[in-house]
Predict the structure.
Amino acid sequence: MSSFNCLRMLVPGIIAIMALSLPHSARGATVEAITFAAVPDELFLPVYEAAQRVGWPLRWNEEGRLVELNRKSVQPGSLRRFTNGAELIGLEQMAAAGAAVVRRSDGSVRVASGFRAFTVVAGAQSVEISLAKQQLYAWQGRRLVLQTRISSGRNNRTPAGEFRAGPYRAKMHRSSLYDDAKMPWSVQINGNIFVHGFSSVPNYPASHGCIRMPLNEGNPARFFYEWVLNGTPVQVTKN
């Protein structure tokens, strides 16, 4: 963001950032968007990045929540968020704030405001789970959208290999093998192996075979469930 010029102002109770300009080389660029299974057919961008590209002013409240985009009020709860709290805006919301949003036959979208314009495409999703590092990495194109600690199956009960997300998923699944255990935000990746939220996620393998994710720390389990599309490649590695 160092190449982007901005004016930062403090107003009582409000933090305001006015977008001023983008380098000429950044105008008309093609940007990879973020998709969510929970919001089909919508494309999302980090708010700050989207505003940069069209030169829009932003205003946040003192809690760090966006309250105004292009001098238009933002509906509370209308934005999605990364697990670190960074906000994401959909292209439909950009259109409501004054952008010209044109969907093309090739699936790309042109977003313009005044003389500034850029093209948005949906990046391809992919997931890597490292059993050695006990980490999950989720990518959308070249964007790392999620990195979180996990707890896989003890005694090598989580198989390595190339899998795909789904087809089964549930906000609250109950194990048919282990005492009807609650498995919130469950996404199947291989038979009875699920990625799901759990209250206990130590930094070592501890499950019966599933891949546990935290329910706190921004709730990466929920983010993953709402983000990952059925069919997304999931690579589980031993390293």
In short: The CA atoms of residues 34 and 156 lie 33 Å apart.
